[in-house]
Amino acid sequence: MRITKEQQKILENLRCERLSSDEVNLRQVDSFYNWRNDSIAGVLRF
Predict the structure, then answer these.
(1) 16, 18, 25, 40: which one has the fewest Cβ atoms less than 10 Å from its Cβ?
(2) Number of Cα atoms under 13 Å in the Cβ half of residue 3
(3) Calpha distance 4→11 (Å, rounded)
(4) Mean pLDDT calculated for residue range 2-11
(5) How confident is the model at residue 25, as a pLDDT?
């Protein structure tokens, strides 16, 4: 299976960012809720 040009374009635009490096990210993590696995949300908050 090959990656399409559209998929490649999406992959090239992804970036990795430390959640705690930006105050906006911290506010978003604080409001994050995962109804399937709340422990994931707990890890993100600490």
Answers:
(1) 16
(2) 8
(3) 11
(4) 96
(5) 77
Of 17, 44, 46, 42, which Cα lies nearest the Cα of 29? Answer: 44
* Rounded CA separation 23/18 (Å): 11
Q: To 10 degrees, the CA torsion angle through 18, 21, 25, 29?
A: 70
User: In angstroms, how far is CA 39 from the centroid of its own chain?
Assistant: 16
The first and second tokens of residue 46, run together, are: 């600490």
Kindly report, residue by residue over 18-31, the tens digit of the pLDDT. Answer: 777 888 877 777 67
The model's pTM is: 0.40
